[in-house]
Amino acid sequence: MSDTLPRLVLKFGGTSMADAERIAHSASIVAAEARTGRGVAVVVSAMAGETDRLLSLATSLGGGLGEVETDTVLSAGEQVSAALMALALQRVGLKARAVMGWQLPIEVDGPPGSARITGIDPHLLDALLDQDTIPVVAGYQGVSADGRLATLGRGGTDLTAAAVAAALQAECDIYTDVDGVFTTDPRIEPAARRVGRISHDEMLELAAMGAKVLQTRSVEYAKAKGVVLRVKSSFLDAGSSAGTEVVCPADIAERRVVSGVAYARDQARLSLYGLDADGAQAAIVFSALAEAGVGIDMIVQARSRSGDSVNLEFSVEGKDLDRALAALRRHLDEMPGSACAHQTGLAKVSVVGTGLRGRADVARTLYEVLRSRNIAVRMAATSEIKISVLVDSDWLEHAVRALHSAYGLDQS
Amino acid sequence: MSDTLPRLVLKFGGTSMADAERIAHSASIVAAEARTGRGVAVVVSAMAGETDRLLSLATSLGGGLGEVETDTVLSAGEQVSAALMALALQRVGLKARAVMGWQLPIEVDGPPGSARITGIDPHLLDALLDQDTIPVVAGYQGVSADGRLATLGRGGTDLTAAAVAAALQAECDIYTDVDGVFTTDPRIEPAARRVGRISHDEMLELAAMGAKVLQTRSVEYAKAKGVVLRVKSSFLDAGSSAGTEVVCPADIAERRVVSGVAYARDQARLSLYGLDADGAQAAIVFSALAEAGVGIDMIVQARSRSGDSVNLEFSVEGKDLDRALAALRRHLDEMPGSACAHQTGLAKVSVVGTGLRGRADVARTLYEVLRSRNIAVRMAATSEIKISVLVDSDWLEHAVRALHSAYGLDQS
Question: Which candidate in A46, B156, B339, B382 could, as Cys together with B140 as Cys, close a disulfide (CB 3.0–4.6 Å)?
Answer without folding.
Answer: B156
